[in-house]
Prior knowledge:
single chain, Elongation Factor Tu (Ef-tu), domain 3, 7 helices
Amino acid sequence: xxxxxxxxxxxxxxxxxxxxxxxxxxxxxxxxxxxxxxxxxxxxxxxxxxxxxxxxxxxxxxxxxxxxxxxxxxxxxxxxxxxxxxxxxxxxxxxxxxxxxxxxxxxxxxxxxxxxxxxxxxxxxxxxxxxxxxxxxxxxxxxxxxxxxxxxxxxxxxxxxxxxxxxxxxxxxxxxxxxxxxxxxxxxxxxxxxxxxxxxxxxxxxxxxxxxxxxxxxxxxxxxxxxxxxxxxxxxxxxxxxxxxxxxxxxxxxxxxxxxxxxxxxxxxxxxxxxxxxxxxxxxxxxxxxxxxxxxxxxxxxxxxxxxxxxxxxxxxx
Length: 318
Ligand code: FES
């Protein structure tokens, strides 16, 4: 983890704050690329980690900038950030990690942001603009007062390639099918935002014949899963032969941790892939958003922070 300070805090839109982070001695932070996120140890919530995309220019190393939505439907970390975090406070963060990188050698990029999903997309736009790449950015919000970083977008060198779509202004609605018409092998799509928005953009792209390899996405959170029919199952640790029962109301990670088998976790909801574990036998019931459908179908790995089993036993490559 890296010790940083909150250099400034700024209201960017209704319920959205940005926090500028730097080392206390202002020495350089680890470099990052567009689409990267950091984990933040949430103040006042011992050990709670939350992931936030970096939204400053990726050439900057003197600071990191994150945007945080105070979402009442969230799991709590972001509300604590809003309530407790002030300029001058110390904070612990991870090094940047990028699960949402720009594709190399794309001729053109189409960027789609929904709400707070603007954070990684903004960073991508900065990087693409710096390298002279061809792109356009579609930013969809419920209302203008919920659109963060609008001043920065308007003042940017790429302002003429930014299209703001507000639900409250029907004339500005995003026509995804027409924007996504005529896919090309060297044109890539990036989308980040609420699940329904992402689904709409990705479904529109597929309807227009886009290849899966050209569709890039980052989820902030998994949609709630109906767990009412969950049952128990067993896991076996291949290296030791130990077997553990996973009750309906606990995850594999929780049970193994209690028995001293540590699996590194981060998001704990199948988004980040940190806990990815090999499966040597048995069939997982995948509940993650990290693996592609093709990868899930191989059934040779799963995310034990949230995924379960379709068979009575899973043998884990641990
Ligand atoms: Fe993020 Fe399991 S901890 S996918």
